[in-house]
Amino acid sequence: MRCKSGNFPLAVDVGCGPGLMSTSFLAPHFDKVLRIDISEAQIAEANANKEYDNIEYKVAHAESMPVEDKSVTLVQVATALHWLDHEKFYRECDRVLVAGGVIAAFSHYPDIQVIDHPNKDHLTRILREIQVKITSNENPEYLLPNKYAAEYYKDPCLQIPYPDTQRHDDIFFPFHTTIAGIHRYYMTITCVRKFISSNEDRKTWWKDIFDRIMEAYRTDNSESPLTITFKAFLLMGRKPTRSN
Predict the structure, then answer these.
(1) Contact assessment for residue 31 and residue 7, using Cβ atoms and an 8 Å cutoff
(2) Contact between residue 198 and residue 140 where contact means Cβ atoms under 8 Å apart
(3) What does the pLDDT average to over 210-235?
């Protein structure tokens, strides 16, 4: 049900991280967007990058959202579903969603592409090196929960427990950031930050990666804009409009 403003009243963006993935999707269509993450570092980064007045950030668990029963039209989970206790999370979604409310969970395939730059192919290869390294056997903290993401959310335990569900593949969307923004994004991910800081060789590798990005971009300005495209997949489920 829409408000007098023409927007829906409330969306909750679960596991929002530093606020990079979905602000532009939700803010224009809701009177309020509550974005939650368990990481204080992620929420601090998100608040620093806040672009819309109708967005609020809070440190909170996905399995215990700080909202009233039947008050939410959309629960969105961007690249975070595989980190959650799925059974508890879906029960919590059922508590907070209005009748007919929607759960939307998406993530992206590992293949990324830099666009809109003369040296985009070289930049793309460097960024893919990051993805390969942090998701390798060298980083077991990343591997265990991300087996669900690696299977593209096809595991039965991740499926939304409503009768009205859909799956969409091959969705492409752009991600607008900067070179420094990419660095900040990765460093807010706990398992990546721990991996990089665990020994001197990895610290040296990390510095070298961004030196190479700057060189490939042909810039000395770390805030130079960078646009990346992701290929995404999406699970959607609608809460029944009446009890069975």
Answers:
(1) yes
(2) no
(3) 94
